[in-house]
Amino acid sequence: MPILSNVKYFYIPLASVWLFLITRKGFRARSLAVGIVLLITLSECVSSDILKPLFNRPRPYDALSHVRLHGYQGDWIVTPELEEPVFGRSQSLPSSHATNMFAAALLLTYYYRRWWPLFYMVAFLVAYSRVYLGVHYPTDTIFGAAVGTLCGLLAVWMIKATGRFLEKKKLSSADGETDSDRST
Q1: pLDDT tens track for 152-181
Q2: Do residues 69 and 134 touch, judged by C-beta distance below 8 A?
Q3: Which sequence spans correspond to the domains of the chain?
Q4: What's the CA gap between 164 and 61, in Å, rounded?
């Protein structure tokens, strides 16, 4: 579970896939590469910069006593008795991991439909790992999955709209129209 939650393990494989996609010819591969950047920016901004400060929900280890938590050194600890919840140190709702992974699962499913079980299984496991490690409540990951799905839908819509716009522009260029012809 710590491996599934640690984004550092995903840097090299994701960067390799992204470089492969961006260097390919054709709209499909490049639009996915651009879509991934757009999606990461969108889902991270919505989750971390908008929703977390809005809800300001403390993580389980800051709100509850005796939470079993996976420590930074790889050991398991139990949090001490709390007199009151600690607000503002680290926010829990929504889970950014769940938001990002479910957004990515939706986007990747749009491009590679037959692989959808794999994409959603990875997203579910990452979301579950956050609860298992004691850093999120189950509702944080469920809400994160819903927000990520909406972000993914928005990214797919933007990619499709861009594709229609470029196709329309390509067709009008092929007909010999210029911008000045269209304005008259």
Answers
A1: 999 999 888 888 888 787 777 776 655 555
A2: yes
A3: 2-171
A4: 48
